[in-house]
Amino acid sequence: MAAQSFKSHTQWDPLFHFVLSPVLLINVLLAVKHAWAYPAYTTVVAVVMAIALFLLAFKMRMYSLKVQDRLIRLEERLRLQEKLPAAEIAKLTEKQFVALRFAADEEVAALAQKAIAGNWDQKQIKAAIKTWRPDHFRV
After folding, report:
1. What is the pLDDT of residues 48-92, one digit of tens each?
2. Same-domain status, 60 and 17
């Protein structure tokens, strides 16, 4: 696998991002076009169903990402338990935990303290990482 960095850590799921999403979007657009040209109950139902299918795909994607975020939060809590007091760990937000997963063990504690003190967002935390720890499992 290719090395990750701040500039190259975004991962794409080709089947979702480049096949499923465009196909479902085209389906919605065609259903709307057809309903506009031939207004009837069935064409309106087709539009509603096309929109529902599109939303279903994105909702399923968001559910899986939320589960990954929860797992990452748990992993990072366990990793930080050795390095920081529990009161400090409790101050981190979920998004901060998710960003800290890329920090190497040597710098994660200091970076977590800076993130808490400065109320850093994910982008600030990722930009401050000196030694990048890749995460090839997230999609």
Report:
1. 999 999 999 999 999 999 999 999 999 999 999 999 999 999 999
2. yes
Is residue 128 assigned to a domain? Answer: yes
23 and 49 share one domain: yes
How many C-beta atoms surround the C-beta of residue 25 within 10 A?
13
Number of structural domains (the chain) is 2
Check if the beta carbon of residue 100 is closer than 8 Å to that of residue 78.
Answer: no
Q: What pTM, to 2 d.p., does this model score? A: 0.79
Encoded amino acid at 54, one letter: F
The first and second tokens of residue 16, run together, are: 């979702």
